Amino acid sequence: MTEWTRHDLLNIRDLSREEIELVLETAKSFQEVSRRDVKKVPALRGKTVVLLFFEPSTRTRISFELAAKRLSADTLSVTAGGSSVSKGESLLDTAKNIEAMNVDLIVVRHAASGAPKIIADALGPSVINAGDGCQAHPTQALLDLFTVKERLGRIEGLKVGIIGDILHSRVARSNLWGFTKLGAKVTLCGPPTLMPRDVEQLGVRVTYDLKEVVAQSDVLMVLRLQKERQQDKYLPSIREYARLFGINKEKLKSAKKELLVLHPGPINRGVEISADVADGEHSVILEQVTNGVAVRMAVLYLLLGTKSKADGEEKDGSAVS
Amino acid sequence: MKILLIKNAIIVNSKDIASKPQDILLENGRIAKIAPSISTKEAEIIDAKGKLVLPGLIDLHVHLRTPGQEHKETVETGSRAAAKGGFTSVFCMPNTNPVIDNASIVESIKKEAQCVGLVNVYPVGAVTKGQKCEELTDIWELAQAGCPAISDDGKAVHNSQLMRLALEYSKMAGVFIIQHCEDPCLSHRGVMNEGLVSTTLGLKGWPEVAETIIVARDIELARYLKARVHFAHMSCGRSIELIRMAKAKGIPVTAEVCPHHFTLTDDLVRSFDTNYKVNPPLRTAADVAAMKEGLADGTIDCITTDHAPHAQEEKELEFDHAPFGMIGLETSLALTITELVEKKVLTFPQLVEKMSTAPARVGGLANKGEIREGLDADITIIDPKKEWVVRKEEFASKSHNSPFVGRTLKGFVETTICGGKITYQA
Q1: Across the interface, do B199 and A118 touch by the CB < 8 Å criterion?
Q2: What is the rounded average pLDDT of the residues B76-98?
Q3: Which residues of B271-420 form beta strands (DSSP E)?
């Protein structure tokens, strides 16, 4: 089996197929911890994990925090306000202050693409990118892959449609790498104004025809549509967007029986997805959330747990089984 | 004033490179005499054996950050950087605080530059008051105060009617317009070239069409009004195509390119190193190739630096938040030699054309840009073969935001002489 050698997890783009599979397999082994009565293993006992969020997030932060706690790490959640400019302290100064307190791993969310990389390049502790600007959200892609694999048994050969605002989506930018690396065929579908230039060169197909995507897909990943896109003039109206690209029961009539509908949350019911689909038979939206904890446990464990093995410390990993 | 005598000079002018060494006598700020052998007792002698002797380099595009941003650069530190880079004349851009939009600021910068006395500084006045693209500055007064050109650099004069009026009025005032070509609606919030790399990195794109639209529009205005436009820091291959077509039709446009745009590509932004954040942004390998072609065939007239100093703490930020710009005065000549002369894109006389003769012609500096008896004693002596490593600590500029730190470059400035006075000696 592949050995995990990475110090940080910044994006899916850099990972090999084997590394992605290793995370998924590790996540599988952690899945049952959360189902136990006592939801805790000592794998990361004595490690300190800081959640450094420069951008508000509920789901991702809670998921990381639970993942770290179920591995017995100490966690601290820091919400740093806005941009470093408005705060008066630079990104690096904030991060260096946290490093100075001898933490082992920093989970970073930031509105600017590349911010976690800047921290990782300058600092000693491991860094996990929990979403940076429009660039990457690697643990989201990993939990999406995990969810699809759990349900359909494979990724290879699947047809995956990613629907919506691709231009501003770090979820799309991570998932397109994850799914293509594992052998799925990815089609992007959304308004032309929200489709990034030259994106076909990343090995995906682009279409504006939702009907066609729905009919052929095994997986539909529906992206959140930010209301600001109308103010920014990318869209004539949210109403027209919902008519053209919103997923509802009517539009799913031609879908495969086995179709999975994913959404990274939070959902705008009635905009990109209707209530009857979000709560319906195809939806795996809450499974994604459940699986997110196991996947983040796996990532934390691979980044911190395997390192302590290399350091010759107690082999905490055995506690998993 | 001391008399200088340069012995054994291989003179490079834009037309040719001398086959035999000559002596050059500099007296009263002028090139007094050029002859196979000159001897005079009272002169200080500079032996240029094995070196090349060029007319002093002229940079039409520099930010001296004065007034208002002296923590980035001052007239003094900028002048030292210019002299160290082999420059004897620089045009400084008006996007200062306050903006250079009235005669008194022009005069104060000129006075300060004369006190420092290392390089001829020509302030470029703003086209519009406060660079707000709303009303014209007193263009005639700016010209009278000593501005050879006007520009809203940092931004374009994007309002077509205002650009038309500025072109008409500046003809009368005897100044030319340097246009920063950027349609602000198209480049809005863009931080790098729009394309595969911006798509991959999730950074907002600054598309090439934001540049080419202004180039195309200004070519049309120049044609219609028979007025001259100089295009600053060209970055896209398509801009070069447009300018080539315009020149073929005899439309009075000129253009410049910066070393980073014929050396670096947007692929480097993958590092998120903010020293690669520059406006206009680094483009693709095809654009870099087009810049070289445009230089070689004469479509691009000048090489300029767009020397844009920023303090370290200003650059050490997220890519989205860091300011645009990189310094360039001290690496421009060596990059041109390393990337263009060594790679047979340009010859040394062509380098002189792009870095001195054409800038003097475009900039309207009558007695500069050539080594000839009677012209100003602005001279740059270089060792064309010497290799050196760009080091952060060695910049004379107050800032060191250069993406070329660590690179080994060929071509080294030995001595810079401005107005007959040695302003830099390695």
Answers
A1: no
A2: 98
A3: 302-303, 379-389, 408-418
